[in-house]
Write a structure and sequence with these properties.
19% strand, single chain, 676 residues, alpha/beta
């Protein structure tokens, strides 16, 4: 066997006319593939070597194969026709001598390509020691090529800086991993900082690996520029919403680092009336204004006297909305001072290309512990607080109030469950007596709806009527209230046939007039329940009745013609257009409680005579127009006496009774004057 051991044999080199590459070329190409080396450049640098047939009976030994596959120092001329500057690779030469073989022209050419390549490369043994390196690597690290031999390859490219990289590198050295790639920031000998992609891959000889470096500094710089464009607003050059949330998430994660307060703060602001600037002066002026606002916000953030190091993040979150993130908040006072500074800075006029503009802002301020806070949750409460600032009158800052937010959340919960509750009829009616001022006898009742909520208990109308009007469920709810009240009034009438029947007064929302056929509903319910029309009174607010025209006025007139009484509720708080009283089909005026409260004696204080004069005038005017007057919120005997002297017809209030269940009203029927 020519002195060779019995091992698996490699295939002989193909004949010159074969399309299959030689073993050596295929192995070297495989070792360089994936390292970032340009194979086209390699083939240009390498001289083509003639392929010689293997003599009969000769086979490559494993040692011979390893010698041919290992890139060593080129012993002849390089691809450019000159001798290599570095000394011969003694280790590779000794290996050739030991096996008594000549590497041959093909392997010598690949060694020449290895040495002449612009890609920094080194052959590293399993211990991590450099066996040989090319000129490009020597130039990259600022050393002679011969001086790199026997050095730890990891030290040349900083592979020991973190445990994960170090472990992966040694996995390749031990043959447990096929390839490893990482990115390293390295210092060039000329002082420049470079980014290099380091690749480590095993060589076919099984005993060494190839380490190569690719300079990716330009790619990193391009990526950095692209990221900057992606993360910044082109108009104001401020960080955009994406970068803001990235920074916010990082701030919440690092809030418990040593020396930090563990708190986070945010000023979330919106320019008041910015749309008018765009609409009247154009978007170009609007963009200039946004850029000028960004400059003043940045100045305010930089000059924050409470800052614990580093400036706050100012970002444009979209449209005319901005955010100032205080990553290491010192407390609520810091955020309040910052918000005041921002308002003061924005109130100063802006001079923009001949245009002098003045703007204001509404600011929602949130300051809280970072523990348990999420980016989404923080932005939700900030948005809510900004809405409060606008609702409170704009050009102001508002601090987040947990109690106010709880009320809002309750309203939201009620809003989401109101319509299903109406369909399930989760409501009940209570009734408050309307008492004759002259005799103290109950003449009628006002039906007041309550929501028997499964979670919040009994809710008064002011908690849900506004929501019902917003979502339209007031129509169905109002129809249920009207039918239930009429059924109850008819039941009282049947149970007390000898007594004068009570009329029932039901509140009607304006939307019921517009969004339903109220006249048809009332007619159908009266026919269904058998209640006489004159025993039904419908109450509408003054603002809803005054100025009515078209459909609302026609509906009121039709109801009045039917015999139903129409009452104006809370009279004196709205338009108070007395001229309309003569043209509306109104039967009753209900004076707002604010007038009646002025009649109360508080200790030694005497009532204001002006209040009595106003009420007396309204009562006399109503009587001249054929209307009756009901006084609301009667709470004391003194108030009742003065209202009776003025000529008020009926009274309603806690002096007589609170809203009670139907059974309690039944006890009042025929019982004579109420005890007060």
């Amino acid at each position: 066997m020519s002195g060779t051991s019995e091992r698996p044999r490699r295939a002989a080199v193909a004949a010159p006319d074969s399309s299959t590459s030689s073993v050596t070329e295929r192995d070297v190409l495989a070792m360089l593939d994936g390292t970032g080396f340009a194979l086209g450049e390699l083939r240009t640098l390498a001289r083509p070597a003639p392929v010689r047939p293997t003599p009969a009976g000769h086979r490559d030994t494993p040692g011979h194969r390893a010698d041919r596959d290992a890139p060593g120092h080129h012993t002849g001329t390089d691809a450019r026709g000159s001798h290599p500057a570095a000394a011969p690779d003694k280790r590779a030469a000794a290996l050739d001598h030991r096996h008594g073989t000549d590497p041959g022209p093909d392997l010598r050419d690949y060694r020449a390509a290895f040495n002449a390549a612009r890609l920094p490369m080194a052959v590293v043994d399993r211990r991590g020691t450099v066996v040989t390196a090319n000129d490009a690597l020597a130039e990259f690290v600022g050393s002679e090529r011969t001086a790199l031999r026997d050095r730890a390859a990891a030290d040349l490219v900083d592979l020991a800086s973190d445990d994960r990289t170090w472990h992966a590198y040694h996995e390749v050295l031990r043959g447990r991993r096929s390839r490893f790639r990482c990115t390293r920031r390295l210092k060039h000998p000329d002082g420049r900082t470079l980014w290099a992609e380091v690749t480590v891959a095993p060589l076919p000889d099984g005993g060494t690996v190839l380490l190569s470096l690719t300079d990716i500094s330009e790619r990193r710089e391009l990526q950095a520029r692209i990221r900057h464009l992606q993360m910044h607003d082109p108009v104001t050059r401020l960080p955009n919403r994406t970068l803001f949330f990235e920074r916010l998430s990082a701030a919440l994660e690092s809030s418990y680092d040593h020396g930090r307060t563990g708190r986070i703060g945010l000023c979330y602001l919106d320019l008041d009336g910015f749309k008018a600037v765009n609409d009247t002066l154009g978007h170009r002026v609007g963009d200039r204004l946004l850029a000028a606002v960004a400059g003043r916000l940045t100045e305010c953030a930089d000059n924050d006297g409470h800052s614990r190091g580093g400036s706050h993040l100012v970002a444009r979150l979209g449209g005319d909305e901005f955010g100032i993130l205080v990553e290491d908040s010192a407390g609520t006072e810091q955020l309040a001072d910052l918000a005041r500074a921002v308002l003061a800075a924005l109130q100063l006029p802006f001079d923009l290309a001949g245009q002098r503009l003045s703007v204001s802002a509404s600011i929602g301020v949130v300051e809280r512990a970072a523990d348990g806070t999420t980016p989404t949750g923080l932005m939700q409460v900030a948005d809510t607080t900004l809405y409060w600032a606008k609702a409170d009158g704009k050009a102001r800052w508002t601090l987040f109030d947990p109690e106010r937010n709880a009320h809002r959340m309750t309203r939201q919960a009620l809003s989401s469950t109101l319509r299903p509750a109406v369909e399930r009829e989760e409501f009940l009616l209570q009734y408050q007596p309307l008492v004759g001022m002259a005799d103290g006898v109950v003449q009628g009742v006002e039906a007041l709806v309550r929501w028997n909520h499964p979670q919040f208990g009994i809710l008064a109308p002011n908690r849900f009527i506004g929501i019902a009007e917003e979502d339209g469920s007031i129509v169905q709810l109002g129809r249920w209230v009207l039918r239930t009240a009429c059924l109850q009034a008819r039941e009282w009438q049947r149970d007390h046939p000898a007594e004068r029947p009570l009329f029932v007064s039901v509140n009607v929302a304006v939307r019921q007039v517009w969004d339903s056929d109220l006249v048809a509903d009332v007619a159908a319910i009266l026919a269904e329940t058998g209640l006489a029309p004159h025993l039904l009174q419908l109450e509408l607010t003054e603002s809803a009745v005054m100025g009515s025209a078209g459909r609302p006025l026609q509906a009121l007139q039709a109801l009045s013609d039917m015999g139903v009484r129409i009452a104006i509720d809370d009279f004196g708080t709205g338009y108070s257009n007395l001229a309309y009283l003569s043209r509306l089909p109104v039967s009753v005026l209900k004076l707002d409680g604010s007038f009646v409260r002025g009649f109360r004696y508080d200790g030694a204080a005497h009532p204001n005579p002006a209040d009595e004069t106003i009420v007396e005038t309204l009562v006399h005017l109503a009587h001249r127009l054929g209307l009756t007057v009901t006084a609301e919120c009667v709470e004391t005997a003194g108030q009742a006496a003065r209202l009776r002297r003025i000529g008020c017809d009926t009274g309603q209030g806690w002096l007589y009774s609170r809203a009670v269940v139907p059974e309690r009203i039944a006890e009042m029927i025929g019982a004579g004057p109420l005890k007060i």
